[in-house]
Amino acid sequence: MNNEIEKKLWDAANDLRANSELSSTQYSTPVLGLIFLKHADYIFEKTKKEINRDNPTPLHFQEKGVLFLPEEARYSHLLNLPEGTNIGQKINDAMDLIEKENQDLKDLLPKNYTIFDNDLLANLLKTFDFEIPGGDVFGKIYEFFLGKFAMTEGQGGGEFFTPTSLVKLIVEIIEPYHGKILDPACGSGGMFVQCANFIKINNKSVNDELSCDGQEKTGKTINLAEMNLAVHGIEGDIKQGNTFYEDNHNSVGKYDFVMANPPFNVDMSKVDPAKVKGDPRWPLGIPTSGKANYLWIQAFWSALNEKGRAGFVMANSASDARGIDTEIRRKLIERDAVDVMIAISSNFFYTVTLPCTLWFLDNDKKNTDRKGKVLFIDARDIYHQVDRAHREFIPAQIQEIANIVRSYRKEEGAKPYEDVKGLCKVATIKEIEDQGWSLNPGRYVGVKDREEAEDFDFEAELEEYNEELQELNVQSKELEEQINLNVNKLLGVD
Fold this sequence. Notes:
The protein has 494 residues and is α/β, with parallel strands linked by helices. The protein is built from 19 helices and eleven strands. It has helices at residues 2-18, 24-51, 58-62, 75-79, 87-101, 118-127, 137-153, 155-158, 164-174, 190-201, 206-209, 219-231, 273-276, 293-302, 324-334, 395-408, 429-434, 442-445, 458-491, and strands at 179-183, 210-216, 236-240, 255-260, 304-315, 338-344, 356-362, 373-378, 384-387, 390-392, 424-428. The strands form two sheets. It has a nine-stranded mixed beta sheet. Strands 9-10 form a two-stranded antiparallel sheet. β9 (384-387) and β10 (390-392) form a beta hairpin. The protein is globular and about 75 Å long.
């Protein structure tokens, strides 16, 4: 039922966008704002019935953790405005009124509805006036629209949205049942949402179990995140800042969980060395050239408390990066912080085709029988083909991968762990040292025997080799640039 609602709303909204001559970037935030407004109205009306008294005050709603909506901000009021009314201005006014009554939302809600043609906006309001099967549907619709907008906005969309199936896998592996969680590159807040879903499945209150802190560089993206948390009923503290230079949550040693999909492969030439020098978040060293991936990795690790776990998305090249990156990686491995490494196929992201790697850190691992070991999983053959250009994990595949980790950790109810050639391998720190401190799963799990590959697909195999070739070409270009830089320094050329 929810899928039908999502598709119907998206098709209608997308048709309206096509007739508006607005770009997806202009269109996305106002549409998401209407989903937020419809959700707030639904919860307000439901709570008003529960309060069951004449003229309930804002305080009555605040006591129940619900946004108070003045009459002029009610969805039904906007839907029934007299003909000829400037609807865009009225919605802007409604957003202003909501912010005045709910200071936590100050300056967060979209107020650019006058860019819409009046008739188009009236149709959009009617489109989103659908029968609601339950309150949770809004979070799913909002998440669905975020993903769709990420696809249509291209590179810009990748800055605020991480594919849901990847986030779900990260959550299943770090298991955030209770505690403080940080996402220092939080985008639209998808990591928090999936953590909340994980808690709800276990029949617990999200806001009783989790404390969510985020940081994001872009103000517009923070607005998307705040609305996303609101429609999911999640309390969170998201601050604006460039994580390379600002640690607005004083994160060091503070968190039970860290999750992130950072903008990886940022060139170190774009990072101000004076601003990162002396920061306690980089205890293992600061890259002097190449990419800034190991600034991110250390930011995640240093934020963990003594039993903390982290799960994050990272460029494949970081697993084998040379120079000072190798030294930083060695120190991280020798401190027994690295727990699980998972290689992911290409085409999981909407904006880039290259494959990626999921990293999992665990500061408590050294106190278990996993001490001195790392689990490597090559999941590049595990995916569901959504269309020609996009892949994802279906729920069964998420559980398949997560169950390997549960077996490795000897969790209650898990099957005994076994290495499987071409899929998973537990390696010792000595074995990793022998591989030059590489954390590339492909170096450890080996290649599945041809006899074992019952459904061998030549085209898929060729595509995999092509992916590896692309990754090697990227690394080759980086090395070439570094060599040229070093030669120019030796020659005194600027």
